[in-house]
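Sanity check

After download, print the first record. It should look like this:
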Amino acid sequence: MTTIPGSHLGIHPLLPRDPNEPHRTASPLELMFDLVFVVAVSVSAVALHEVELEGHVGAGVTSYLMLFFAIWWAWMTVSWFATSFATDDWLYRVGVIVQMAGALTIAAGARAGILEGDFTWVVIGYVVMRLVSVPQWIRVAVANPEYRRTATVYAVGIVAIQALWIGRQPMLPEWMQVPSFLFLVLLEVTLPAVAEQQQATPWHPHHMAERFGLFTIILLGESILASSNAILAAIEGSEEPMRFITIAGLGLVIVAAMWWTYFSRPVHPQIGALKASMVFGYFHYVIFASAGAFSAGIEVAVAAAQHEVHLDEVAIRSTLTVPVALFLISVWWLTLRHILPMWATIGIVTLAIVCGASALVPASLLITAIACIVIVVILEVTSGPPSPVAGSLKPSKA
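Expected structure tokens:
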């Protein structure tokens, strides 16, 4: 940590980062922060898998989506602040480490939240993560008069909303839990739009594109783990080893195609003006949640092959194919629809719908894998020259 003007006791002013800073990549602290979220993602995927096995798909998916809001919004708000004001002093590091503790608390409460509907520990971890950002915004207000109103709106808004989160579960009747949850979600996602109207904070397009890409890889990595469990089932003396090997192989093909689709085109052009950047970040809730749910779908397929599922066949297949369809359509809508020729758009959307609808037939896993391969072929046929790696991208002039 180097000393910069205005630092005192090793604490640096939280000054805005240059949005055109060359070679801006994820810092070791950000990578460590992401690692903690691997735990939360893994626990939520396993819990969703378990509740689906019991036949409670609707309730399980609802609880999963509620839990995933905490994971997604907590991760995104920390990451977005970091691209604007991160400094490498000890106080900032301690704050992020405390936020890691909040993420671990969310992970610890994920199972009870999905299986039992008890989100107490999830809320505690979430509130810790959000409140730690308040002194960070206060530091921004102190060091940057031009961002003082923006930082003040953030700080006051975060405190007020977290007070509502704390009082929601114990004070409201059962029938008010979901409506109140949706109301507070609306407040959370509206706060940045209100605060940024005062004076928009700077953000680094390439840095944020990398951050979202890394988290997407984390979520897709859970599906690779689920595929490895299928291979493990085949090795451990199953009477139908080829069935498990087929699940693992086709699962790997699908997850590879999802990765290929997401990274087929640069996404940093989507991070420019305030409205476009907010759409980019908010729409990733669908991308992230569907990627996480896909891993649970592979686990359900493995359990079904072991005759351990209390679901009908269509529901079993839907747990895998529907998340894939949502992921593909979401990525197309967010990053591809403006740049692909019409025939490619029609092909990708049609094939994504085929993935979801394939749950109606027994060969759904094979159909989904083939549809994903064709999507990759379309993307390659319509691609231009290879893009440079993320670390070598020149900064945007936007």
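If your output differs, re-run the checksum step. Summary of this record's structure: The chain has a mean pLDDT of 87.
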